[in-house]
Design a protein that fits this description.
By secondary structure, the protein is α+β, with helices and mostly antiparallel strands. The protein has helices spanning 2-20, 36-45, 90-93, 95-102, 151-156, 158-164, 166-187, 229-237, 275-294, 317-323, 335-344, 360-371, 425-442, 451-458, 471-479; strands at residues 57-69, 72-79, 82-89, 109-118, 124-135, 192-193, 199-200, 212-215, 220-224, 242-250, 262-271, 298-301, 304-307, 313-316, 380-383, 405-410, 413-420, 464-470. The chain starts with a helix and ends in a 20-residue tail after the last helix.
């Protein structure tokens, strides 16, 4: 710690000295003609024509290493596209510029102008004839050998993480490509990208604890959205028959390797489609995303190979409970036997909030979460969810106790949730009211009924299917990241007094 303080003190002294001699520490007038990638691409294309004297390149970036040799030095310059070696020689840049260079440190941003040559080892190198300080770094970068490895510090100081760990930069480049691929996939299928409110008077579309705020001018409470679902379905009612939103959601709940209070979801809705149509579409979309991001539809994740090549397995919830979870089929409709099975397997039969016993539908999903979900490594659609746990889903025509709904599981976790939408306003009202009744018995939270959404349904919403996909979790799979914090640039963490 004391050593770091000494380095910082010396850098501040250098900065003052440079400023006193008329050097601008943070100018903004340097012209960049080529990125590192541009330069290296031109060399690969026509290396015979490259000479130190022509063509001339101007490049800029952060100094990542300096090796000094008297009146010359080799440096490593990094920009957003890569890293380039440069040779700084006093007789090339002049005594004044070289005196400036001697005051520079690893971490400083500089601009260089010069031509390219090959060293004796064959490495293409920029021979600088001009050098300009663009931004003075007053703090030292982490020591190169150990780098920045402490996860807590990496997440709190993501800017250092990105500087020191190139593999982390790659994670977020892949995440960006994932979102770009999904967006284009849907646009190509005539989906319209829209934006819905992030502050809502009534939080809806999911069962979750919201964040609450207050709007002074309107004199009203507002909630950060837990889902955009009810607004997107209003748009379907209004005539936008295919809509999607890549959205930020907020849920005031726990934090884990798979949960962050602020997260990214894709939600999309398609009129005149069923949940089965969306299973087909999802399979194609995720497979295409894997190919774009990873270059293959077979992807390694935490030591296992996930094969996105279809067709993906499809199982009914009750069948999965029996064949994978070990629940005897005759127990599934016998509340007493199912409770005994859950108790024998250490599964809670009560609501977390009140200790009251849950319904049989929720009990089945509790058993599923513990005994089945972790075993679903390869892409698997689970269908046939009970009405009790699917308040917005259309009832199945043959069996009204279940819904036309699926959840997608990969690597032992939920990735997507979709269903044929309930567009019967009478049924939807009854289910909302029942949900409010159940919730009011379970907790002391204030619960609200979205009357305007029912009004929208009463004007008529076409038969529709909709789905939500967890972008963060999908990014985890495609970047081999064990924690959601690895794929969110600035995950939420408890504050600390000092770095």
């Amino acid at each position: 710690m004391e050593q770091a303080k000494d380095i910082i003190k010396k850098r501040h002294e250098k900065a003052r000295s440079l400023k006193e001699t008329g050097v601008e520490l943070y100018p903004n007038d340097f012209f960049v003609s080529h990125t590192v990638r541009d330069i290296l691409s031109l060399i690969d294309a026509d290396s015979d024509q490259i000479r130190p004297e022509a063509p001339i390149f101007s490049a800029a970036g952060r100094i990542m290493a300096i090796n000094r040799f008297g009146k010359s030095a080799f440096i490593r310059l990094r920009d957003r596209t890569g890293q380039l070696q440069s040779y700084i020689r006093q007789d090339e840049v002049g005594s004044e510029s070289y005196a400036l260079f001697k005051q520079l440190d690893v971490g400083d941003f500089i601009g260089l102008v010069g031509g390219m040559f090959q060293t004796k080892t064959g490495e293409w190198t920029l021979l600088a004839n001009e050098i300009k300080l663009l931004s003075k770094s007053l703090r030292p970068l982490p020591e190169k050998f150990h780098g920045l490895r402490d996860p807590e510090k990496r997440f709190r100081q993501r800017y250092l993480d990105l500087i020191m760990n190139p593999e982390i930069r790659d994670v977020f480049l892949k995440r960006s490509l994932l979102i770009k691929t999904i967006r284009q996939f849907l646009i190509d299928r005539d989906y319209l990208e829209v934006e819905t409110p992030m502050m809502q008077p009534i939080p809806g579309g999911a069962e979750a604890r919201p964040f609450k705020t207050y709007h002074n001018a309107l004199d009203m409470d507002l909630y950060l959205r837990i889902a955009p679902e009810l607004y997107l379905k209003r748009l379907v009612t209004g005539g936008f028959e295919r809509v999607f939103e890549i959205n930020r959601n907020f849920r005031n709940e726990g934090i884990s390797t798979q949960h962050n209070p602020e997260f990214t979801m894709l939600e999309f809705y398609q009129a005149y489609a069923t949940f089965e149509d969306l299973m087909d579409l999802t399979e194609e979309m995720v497979k295409r995303s894997a190919a774009a991001v990873c270059g293959d539809v077979k992807v390694e994740y935490q030591g296992d190979i996930i094969d996105f090549n279809g067709p993906w397995r499809r199982l009914i919830l009750e069948d999965a409970l029996s064949s994978i979870g070990g629940v005897p089929p005759e127990f599934l409709q016998d509340r007493e036997k199912l409770e005994a099975f859950a108790t024998d397997n250490g599964i809670s039969l009560t609501s977390v909030e009140t200790g009251r016993s849950v319904g049989i539908g929720k009990l089945m999903t509790k058993i599923f979460d513990v005994l089945v979900e972790p075993k679903l490594q390869q892409p698997t659609f689970i269908t046939g969810y009970p009405v009790e746990v699917s308040p917005l889903s259309r009832r199945n025509k043959e069996n009204p106790n279940i819904t036309d709904r699926f959840e997608l599981f990969i690597a032992g976790r939920e990735i997507a949730n979709g269903f044929s939408e309930l567009n019967d306003p009478v049924d939807q009202r009854d289910r909302f009211l029942q949900q409010l009744k159940n919730k009011s018995e379970e907790s002391d939270e204030t619960l609200m009924f979205d009357e305007d959404y029912i009004h929208a349904l009463e004007y008529g919403m076409p038969p529709t299917a909709g789905e939500g996909v967890g972008i963060d979790r999908l990014a985890m799979l495609l970047t081999n990241s064990a924690s959601i914090r690895e794929v969110i640039l600035f995950p939420h963490m408890r504050p600390v007094d000092k770095y």
